[in-house]
Amino acid sequence: MSDMEKDARKYLIPGLERGLLILMELSRHHREMSFAEILKLVDIPKATAYRAIQTLEYMGFVQRHPTSGLYSLGVNVLRLGFEYVASLDVVQIGQPVIESLRDTTGCSSHIAIRDGRDVIYVARVSAANATIRRVSVGTRLPVHRTSLGRMLLTGESRETFESLYPDDQLPDNEPGSPKDRESLWAMVQEDRERGYVIAESFFQFGISSIVYPLFNHDGEIEAVVSIMVPVHEIPESDRERLRHDVAEAASNISNLLGHQGTRGGKRQMG
């Protein structure tokens, strides 16, 4: 052992180190294990290992099967993991993913959230030859007039929807937007069933978008990811490829947010 390693180990707490070693082995093997198996892997005295496991079990980091007596990770390990993931901002997690999405598709890419009846762009990367510069980080647009807003609404109940839009008529009803509240709700239900939105000149003529939801560890829609395609109508030859790329980015970000949904399922991949 080098002098540097000796200096580093000088401040370690042996009991804590041994407990963490046990947790790491249980995590690495992804299965229930007997005390004898754990003891062989961590290579520490039997009495010390037993006390460490008893402490971890008492604190909920290890659980023992009542019949087989085998050990596995406890719920508090999962809770720590979820709390760590929850502490990460969706922008911090998603920024490198949308940069890769931009590079793959050649299209400007975005992450947006909902704030009341507004969509807020919280992350954006522009394509190298982008000519569309209408939105930037912090831009707010009406939920009911954008494909991103429609996708964000798919995670809401009818009760929440009606609290957002208590009147039959929608505010600032522009040409091309849903004509009334029920028309918007019908579109949202279709979007929910499909699992994504491909909107061609929905908000602005000559601009199309592909939008997928981002799910957190509770299975709730945290945000959406999208690409902006500078065409009135996406060519059939490009449509499926671009959709798959956005779906892949959404799946990657959702996984990083702790979502445990099945890869390739309707809600993730369409």
TrEMBL record:
Coiled coil: none
The entry's keywords: DNA-binding, Transcription, Transcription regulation
Molecular function terms, GO-annotated: DNA binding; DNA-binding transcription factor activity
InterPro entries in alphabetical order: GAF-like_dom_sf (IPR029016), HTH_MetabolicPath_Reg (IPR050707), Tscrpt_reg_IclR_C (IPR014757), Tscrpt_reg_IclR_N (IPR005471), WH-like_DNA-bd_sf (IPR036388), WH_DNA-bd_sf (IPR036390)
Domain HTH iclR-type residue range list: 13-75
Protein name, entry field: IclR family transcriptional regulator
Pfam families: HTH_IclR, IclR_C
UniProt organism field: Halomonas binhaiensis
Annotated ranges, domain IclR-ED: 76-259
PROSITE patterns: HTH_ICLR (PS51077), ICLR_ED (PS51078)
GO BP annotations, alphabetical order: negative regulation of DNA-templated transcription
